[in-house]
Design goal:
Layout (H helix, E strand, L loop, with lengths): L12 H31 L4 H29 L1 H15 L9 H33 L4 H22 L5 H17 L24 H28 L10 H24 L1 H21 L3 H15 L2 H12 L3 H29 L2 H18 L6
Length: 380
Amino acid sequence: MSGGLASVRSAAWSERAAVVAVFLANGIGIGAWAACIPALKARLALSDGALGFVLFAFAVGAVLLMQFAARLTRRLGPAKATRAAALLFGVALPLPAFAPDFATLAVAAFAMGAANGLLDVTMNGYASDVERRWGAAIMSSFHAAWSGGCLIGAALGGVLLVSGAAWPLGVAAALVVALAALVWTWLQDTDATPLAETHIAPPAGALLPLCVAALLCMACEGAMGDWVGVYLMETGRAPQAMAPIGFAAFSATMVVGRLLGDNAVRAWGRARVMRWGATLAAAGLALAVVDPRLGSATLGFALVGAGLSNVVPTLFSAAAGLASVPAAGVAMVATAGYAGLLSGPVVIGAIAQGASLRLGIAFLILCVGCAAMAARSLRP
């Protein structure tokens, strides 16, 4: 049994199902957004640098609202905060599809990122509490639902993009709201100790290497959604309708990896799962860089999904066990992770603008390589 988890199960199956549904809903929205990025770039004739700024706006919104997430959780309780964040995400999701120009798209991406950042922290904080009361490592199963949602969203985008970017995001928004409504009463607050802090402190001590690893891995994970479709279309010369297949392959192997992840963590420990996972991701990125054609690159991105599948859940679980309140540790690591999303799109966009997008993807190999070395900081 993972350290820091309760020995007596006090969480209900309905709570676990509710968390799965919320993660699934968030993944559907992010998958649909990822599928629409190449189409939005083409429709508004954005350069790689301009697209990088739009993705930067998304991440800025996420990071800013993450600072508010702990306060919202303290005021409303984890369950009510998760409900509110899910509804807000559903409302903000379709906004980018109606942007008529670059500036409006950046503002819409900021709003959607803000809602996503709020939901990310609240749902992971609630999930950490459910995992603690469940008495066993189950965080990877929640993130498997998120990856499954990304796969559904990406597939939805591929099918509906022929009718315009508004359709995938609009349908995804409806699904997010419907799933939140379906499990509304199953999201229940317990008598857990409320957050004592209303802000996110700088990472220190044992949390610092976890934050660094989260920054590097989420920079890579975010790039899979933000740049893979563009990479396949522009570097791999894939048709626009086939561009979402790279992210779909990434999400599919993430689902499989995360479904197996809880057993892997119990058998091999967090450090090994993270170290070998990051190494596999580096190999997949290398394949996509060496051969950017649709088939080879898609296989490479599938390997990245398998490798990264359990890194973030492992970091979140470890962080939750190191903080006095699970949501506080999760918020700290999540904020560091979104700092990777904040800088990653800008760095990759700048590399693509100054050299090539291929070199930008190659930069991610260095990121996951450093994350593999950071795995040494994890202890049983």
